[in-house]
Amino acid sequence: MTQPLLEIQNLSVQYGGIQALKAIDLTIYAEEVVTLIGANGAGKSTTLRAISRIVNPRQGSIIYHRQEITRRRPHEVVKLGIAHSPEGRRVLTRQTVLDNLELGAYSRNDRLGIKSDIEQQFLLFPRLAERKNQLAGTLSGGEQQMLAIARALMSRPKLLLLDEPSLGLAPAIVREIFSIIQNLRTTGMTILLVEQNANLALQIADRGYVLEAGCMTLSGRAEELLSNDRIKQAYLG
Ligand code: ATP
User: Fold this and answer.
1) What is the CATH number for 207?
2) Which of 12, 14, 18, 40 for a ligand 1 pocket mutation test, highest count of atoms within 8 Å of Cβ?
3) Does the beta carbon of 17 sit less than 6 angstroms from any atom of ligand 1?
4) Which range marks the domain in which residue 194 is found?
5) Are 83 and 155 in contact (CB under 8 A)?
6) Is 151 within the bounds of a domain?
7) Number of domains observed in the structure of the chain
8) Predicted local distance difference test score (pLDDT) of residue 1
C-alpha cells in the first residue's frame, strides 16, 4: 500500500465553546481529488484551516509526506507544498492581478521560476492574462476565484486545498472553473475540494467524505456516494 500524502487522525478543533471538529480522520493519497461535503457550519472550512495551520487543533495529528505538521507555522506548511485557496477568495483588491500572483510566490526566491510560473497561470487562466494590470477588486467574482486559485498555485503546491470555488458564481463560470480543476488533476495535482455543490464535486472527485456537525459520518468512492440514497436525499437535491 502506498503512503498517504496527507493523513489526519483524531483531529478536534474548538472555537471558544464551539467544537467545530470532533475527532475526525481523513486520508489523501498522491494525485487523488478528494471532496469534503457537508451542510453550512459542518466544519469543512475548519478542516482546511487546520491543515494550512490557520487554526490550532485541540487534539489529534496531521501528517503530511511522513512529517508531523500539526504544530507547524502556516508559512512552513506552504514551503512544504500545501497551498490554500480560501472561501470568499480573499484576493488583495487594491493590488493588481500580477501583484496578487507574485504574493502567492512569497515563499520562493527563484525569480526566473516565478516569472515562468506566472506565464503558466496565464495559460491556465487566459482571462487573468488579459487583466494582468487590472486591480483585483475590479475583476468579476469568477475572475477573482480564478485569481485565488492561480495565486495558490504560485507556491508550486503538491496538495491544493480549495474552499468553495463555486460559491456565488453563475453556472457558466462554475463550469469554467471546474474544467480548470479537471485540467489540474490531469497534471497530477493532489486536491482537497470543499464544496456545497456536492453533485459537481463528486463528479470530478475520486473519493468523498461527509462531514456532519463536526463529525465524519461517511466516506467512499465518489461514484458510490453519488448513488447513496442518504447522500442523494441530503446533498444532491
Ligand atoms: P460554511 O460552508 O458555512 O463555511 P463549514 O462547513 O465550512 O461551513 P466551518 O466554517 O468550518 O463550517 O464552521 C464550523 C463551525 O465552527 C460552525 O459552527 C461555525 O459557526 C464555527 N466557526 C467557524 N469559524 C469560527 C470562528 N472564527 N469563531 C467561532 N466559531 C467559528
Assistant:
1) 3.40.50.300
2) 18
3) no
4) 6-91+157-236
5) yes
6) no
7) 1
8) 56
